[in-house]
Amino acid sequence: MAFDRKFLLLSAGEVLVVAATDLLVALVLQAIVLAVFLEDRRGYGVFAVGIAIFAGIIAASGNVLLPLLGLAAALGCGYLALTLQDYRIARWAGGGA
């Protein structure tokens, strides 16, 4: 079985992220590892800013649970917005929802 070289290098980078004992360092390493392997970087700026804000909130609060709950709430709201937008497009196109 042949493995893709990019996949193996990305996996090695993820090992570094997991090996980091500090959560802030892990978040920064995650952004760097992902940036190296992206071919289309259109949304990377938003991702990097989001990680920086999330890392700042974790550093300011000193607690991980509350920022993770906030992140989960934001992701849930984003999913809900995308689902409603898909529903509106389906209704506008005349298809059944």
From TrEMBL:
The keyword Transmembrane applies. It comes from the Archaea. The chain crosses the membrane at residues 15-37, 44-60, 66-84. Keywords: Membrane, Transmembrane, Transmembrane helix. This is Uncharacterized protein. It comes from Methanoculleus formosensis.
